[in-house]
Amino acid sequence: MEAFTLAVAKGRTANQTIHLMKKIGIIFNNFTSSSRKLVFYNSDKTIRLLFVKAVDVPTYVERGAADVGIVGKDNVLESEADVYDILDLRIGQCTFAIAGKPGENLNKEKPITIATKYPTITHNYFSKKGKAIHIVKLNGSVELAPLIGLADAIVDIVETGNTLKENGLVVLEEVEPISTRLIINKASFAIKSTSIQPFIEKLRLGLEE
Ligand SMILES: Nc1ncnc2c1ncn2[C@@H]1O[C@H](COP(=O)(O)OP(=O)(O)OP(=O)(O)O)[C@@H](O)[C@H]1O
Ligand SMILES: O=P(O)(O)OC[C@H]1O[C@H](OP(=O)(O)OP(=O)(O)O)[C@H](O)[C@@H]1O
């Protein structure tokens, strides 16, 4: 079978991804998410795994440095990468939402300010609604922004809702559901179909079990 390269997002979804691989019979020798190693091979060396920062996975796949990627839909949408989004792996399930102080009005006359780690998704969402906004790009602890007057609201991931709750914020509007996806480089999908298609099918079956 022709070998292919798989980019897997580091971070909170990594262990579940490796667990899913194991479930479908693909074992990466010596893999531990705490290791400093960045390249791993499965037992028969037909899959090379690259362990990369989540936000970079769509870039690896779009540019063909990896044929296949496993990463959150948030990163796929934010990158606007030209890749096939093939399969919902049902890992890392959460929701994109607009959040703010209770009663915050998102429909004011003048443009509101939104703080977010996801400026592209935020821009696209509000421009579809025909609403002008200002965006403040932050890299984390986004929930602080409405508390200290840096922004009127945030666009961020909500999973348990604990972070919002502990900071006195609420969901004002749900944007869309997010989960970990299988993405594929468009050329690889055609050229390496003999190895990539069976991999997709195994994953599909594994998800049904
Ligand atoms: N509660 C959550 N918060 C953030 N991401 C979540 C959550 N639940 C699931 N996810 C998924 O996990 C991915 C984030 O993983 P992680 O937080 O490890 O990465 P990261 O944000 O790139 O890391 P870092 O904070 O080190 O930059 C997201 O892209 C999202 O798809
Ligand atoms: O609804 P919850 O279960 O509380 O999860 C949501 C929180 O988790 C993420 O932050 P993360 O832990 O990645 O930290 P960050 O502030 O550095 O982005 C996300 O940005 C929210 O802040």
What is this structure, in a nutshell?
With 209 residues, the chain is an alpha/beta fold.
Topology:
Elements: E1 4-9, H1 14-23, E2 39-41, E3 47-52, H2 57-62, E4 68-72, H3 73-79, E5 84-88, E6 94-100, E7 112-116, H4 119-128, E8 133-137, H5 144-147, E9 153-158, H6 162-166, E10 170-178, E11 180-184, H7 186-191, H8 193-208
Parallel strand pairs: 1-3, 1-4, 7-8, 7-9
Antiparallel strand pairs: 2-3, 4-11, 5-11, 6-9, 6-10
Bound molecules: adenosine-5'-triphosphate and 1-O-pyrophosphono-5-O-phosphono-alpha-D-ribofuranose.
Describe, in plain words, how this protein is organized in 3D.
This is ATP phosphoribosyltransferase. Its main location: cytoplasm. Heteromultimer composed of HisG and HisZ subunits. It is a single chain. This protein is 31% helix and 30% strand. The two termini are 25 Å apart. It contains 8 helices and 11 strands. The chain folds into 2 domains: 4-92 and 179-208, Periplasmic binding protein-like II (D-Maltodextrin-Binding Protein, domain 2), CATH 3.40.190.10; 94-176, 3-Layer(aba) Sandwich (D-Maltodextrin-Binding Protein, domain 2), CATH 3.40.190.10. With 209 residues, the chain is of the alpha/beta class. The strands form 2 sheets. The protein has a 6-stranded mixed sheet. It has a 5-stranded mixed sheet with strand order 8-7-9-6-10. Bound molecules: adenosine-5'-triphosphate and 1-O-pyrophosphono-5-O-phosphono-alpha-D-ribofuranose.
